[in-house]
Amino acid sequence: MLLFGTAGIPNSAKKDTFSGIMKLRELKLEAMELEFVHGVKISHINAQKINTFSNKNNISLSSHAPYYINLNSLEKEKVEASIVRIIKTAEISHICGARNIVIHPGYYHNMDKLDAYNNIKKALKRAVEEIQSYNVILRVETMGKLTQFGSLEEVLNLSQDLGPKVMPCIDFAHLHARTIGKLNTYQEFCQILDNVEHKLGKKGIKDIHIHVSGIKYSEKGELHHLNLKESDFNYIDFIKSLKDLEVEGLVICESPNLEEDAIMLKELYHN
Ligand SMILES: [Zn+2]
């Protein structure tokens, strides 16, 4: 099964998680990413309530860890604080029943890419050791700006090196922006998915976590997200590739219009 949902509370809902879940159900969407992007600010009791409520309404949850994570910071304290933020997000996501946690890993800081890789791997490994008792997977996101760590190859290698608690979040819009307009044809979408399967096995595409939106980019990569119809992102062939390769998991829409594009993608997928 491939489920479609929004990054955070739909625009047409009241701005609380419970109203968001109800709205998604009403719109016949199936998933929501909890946005802890500005910090984890909910109590354990509320997290438990969110878990029960999302189950009752049949909405699959994932979460997005805080933006201010940089596992390759030149300042040691910032790496330590990033690890703590990941652990805290994992704890609350576990209580919410949000198994997939999306993480922005960090920046290259003009470092050699392999050195950056090794620093991030080392820090992420420490976070992984601390979250073994939680039913969560850290999803390292493919990033859209060229200064950001997170090519497809890097995130797949991290999954391979760090084991089952680390998997990718394949952000197709970011990959398109990162390659300055490439990775936008049916064949290239299939190649990305084949790559995931080749490196991670069947599980890679049968338990996938996808981000998608329209995107504006320059020669430095991502500028900002757009609605799909206002962008050059080839969402029709994107959906076709997911269908043809029988991909399963979650597709989270990050367009500014959130639920509108999520519904459009879901309808394309099913028709
Ligand atoms: Zn993200």
Which descriptors apply to this entry?
single chain; 271 residues; alpha/beta; TIM Barrel; eight-stranded parallel beta barrel; two-stranded antiparallel ribbon; 10 helices; binds zinc ion
What separation lies between the terminal Cα atoms? 15 Å
Q: Biggest sheet: strands, sense, closure?
A: 8 strands, parallel, barrel
pLDDT averaged residue by residue: 98
Poorly predicted regions are: none
| DSSP helix fraction | 40-55%
CATH C-level: Alpha Beta
Main-sheet strand order equals 1-2-3-4-5-6-7-10
Give the CATH H-level superfamily.
Divalent-metal-dependent TIM barrel enzymes
Overall shape = globular
- Radius of gyration over C-alpha positions, nearest whole angstrom: 17 Å
Bound molecules: zinc ion
Q: Figure out the total of helices.
A: 10
N-to-C series of helices and strands:
EHEHEHEHEHEHHHEEEHEH
Please provide the count of β strands: 10
